[in-house]
Specification:
The chain has about 350 residues and is of the alpha+beta class. The chain folds into two domains: about 240 residues, Nucleotidyltransferase, domain 5 (2-Layer Sandwich); about 100 residues, no CATH class. The protein has twelve helices and 17 strands. The strands form six sheets. The protein has a five-stranded mixed beta sheet, sandwiched between helices. The protein has a four-stranded mixed beta sheet with strand order 11-14-15-16, with no helix packed on it. Strands 1-2 form a two-stranded antiparallel ribbon. A hairpin with a 5-residue loop joins strand 6 and strand 7. The two termini are about 15 Å apart.
């Protein structure tokens, strides 16, 4: 903490060193945390209760804006963190339009630092490799000092208070819930909850006066920060290719490349783009693979021959072994491979945030 303070990255009051972190610019520091949502969801077909979801929330410490979130029925994982980071970095206009929310959510870009606790998903290879590739510093919360993550925890508490007004809420504890039948009252699906979060964030939370900002609204503070950067000829760095950015944070596995491709969890993946590697002399090559657990039809294999500077190259439809051809002939969708080339450069970003140019 002392080292970062001496570099000028953050303001840390002497009297409470480690208890607060105040970023100097938008996306200078983003705190990320998870919580189970105090709500029972229903399935979209029969509208029956299916349990409580989890939400991963990211807070821009400078403005207190919610920089991104990800809601899922799965327990927190490196995938949750990666998808939340992708949401932070993305232009949210198309997503808001797709879920029919007419609102402004201008927060977008690559964080300079992320503040997290010491849960396993924040120490995953996927997160550490992705952050290294995109020059994002991981600031793990010191053990025994929970107040360091207080910004994101307070915002999560605020959002849960809003959730307590929804049908199907579980409230914060049994005493608050009393005789309220959360399962019987439940009526929201996962997609509907995601849309509700978008509305609550953009139309309520971002526009309300914030005590931590001396009564200023988070959205206004963010916009002021962006204007101040623009006056200096800077802007929060934005990934050139959002898809490549997401891939860089997907879970990592390693497999030996065989003549028929690679196998993960009894699923074969093949692309003709792998042939140059397969046909090389020498022992079989062990490759680094990323896979999105939400879509097992495709994997992304890191291409070590490109120097790590180009964008991803799409794989071709599955081809190779006879059984793959037979499956295609029968109309079966065959898993394919993308050769993935790590993205490093940002678009319209602040050169001070880029690797090799940061004097800190």
């Amino acid at each position: 903490m002392e080292d970062r303070r001496q570099r000028g990255d953050v303001d840390v009051p002497d009297a409470v060193l480690g208890s607060t972190v105040t970023a100097r610019t938008p996306l200078d520091m983003v705190q990320i945390d998870h919580t189970p949502v105090d709500l029972i969801l229903v399935d979209p077909i029969e509208r029956r209760p299916i349990g409580r979801p989890w939400v991963t929330v990211a807070i821009d410490v400078f403005s207190r804006c919610i920089a991104g979130f990800y809601v899922t029925l799965e327990a927190p994982s490196s995938t949750s963190v990666g998808l939340c980071l992708a949401h932070i970095a993305s232009d949210k206009r198309a997503w808001l339009e797709a879920i029919e929310v007419d609102a402004d959510w201008p927060v977008m870009g690559r964080p300079r630092q992320i503040g997290v606790d010491n849960a396993a998903e924040f120490h995953s290879e996927a997160l550490e490799r992705g952050c290294a590739q995109h020059d994002i510093t991981i600031d793990w919360r010191p053990l025994g000092r929970p107040q360091v993550g207080g910004v994101v925890e307070r915002v999560i508490g605020t959002m849960m208070e809003l959730v307590h007004g929804l049908p199907g809420t579980t409230f914060s504890n049994v005493m608050q819930r009393g005789r309220y039948d959360s399962d019987k009252a439940a009526c929201l699906t996962l997609a509907e909850l995601e849309r509700w979060f978008a509305v609550a964030i953009t139309k309520l939370y971002h526009l309300r006066p914030h005590a931590g900002l001396d009564g200023e609204a988070p959205l206004r503070r963010y916009q002021e920060g962006v204007r101040a950067l623009a006056a200096e000829g800077r802007a929060p760095p934005t990934p050139r290719d959002p898809r490549a950015f997401l891939i860089d944070f997907l879970p990592v596995v390693r497999r030996t490349l065989r003549r028929d491709g690679v196998v993960i969890d009894h699923i074969h993946y093949f692309s003709s783009a792998l042939k140059p590697w397969i046909e090389r002399d020498g022992p079989p090559r062990r490759v680094l693979i990323r896979r999105d657990p939400r879509d097992l039809s495709r994997v992304y294999i890191h291409d070590p021959d490109d120097g790590g500077r180009d964008g991803p190259v799409d794989g071709l439809p599955g081809e190779g072994p006879d059984e793959v051809h037979d499956a295609q002939a029968g109309g079966v969708e065959v898993p394919v491979v993308d050769l993935h080339r790590a993205e490093h450069d940002d678009e319209d970003g602040d050169p001070a945030h880029r690797g090799g140019e940061d004097g800190g």
